[in-house]
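README, section 4: Worked example with a bound small molecule

Sections 1 through 3 covered apo chains. Here we extend the same pipeline to holo records, where the ligand is supplied as SMILES alongside the sequence. The molecule in this example is copper (II) ion. Nothing else about the input changes; the structure line simply encodes the ligand pose together with the chain.
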Amino acid sequence: MKKIIIMISAVALLTCILYSMKVYAAGDLTKQEPIQVNVQLGDEKNSLRFYPSILEFETGKLYKLVLKNRSRAKHYFSSDGLSRSVFTRKIQVLGKDGKTIAEVKGNIREIEVYPGGVAEWWFVPVKAGRISDLKCTIKGHTEAGMVGKITIK
Ligand SMILES: [Cu+2]
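The generated complex, written as structure tokens:
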């Protein structure tokens, strides 16, 4: 009888330890393995578009949104709606060799990417909704169709 009680106690204790470890691991949502999403700002032919222009994210997951500009013009990735719906862990700016040359922390609303440049926006969506204010704010670009839609499920 005593042996059984000790065994049940040991199993209960082990279950508690494993459960608390799991809760702890899920606690910091910014430390997950990121899901990479690539968005190209314009293209080699200088098209005024985001590729893709429809983006979808899920709350509670860590994303690494890679913004690449392969065109000859500067472009913005700008969205008030997205900035209000996510927790930003950091922005990483990459040099020509693909290595990180700067990290920016804090709330981000708009990122300007220069020709040939790459910036990564690491964030966790915290609010579901449909966002339709993604645009490039350079004069004439929004009007030409450099806009997009974001859904957060
Ligand atoms: Cu633009």
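What to look for in the output: The pocket of copper (II) ion is lined by residues 48, 75, 136, 138, 141, 146 (CB under 6 Å). The chain is about 25% helix and 40% strand.

Section 5 describes how to batch many such records.
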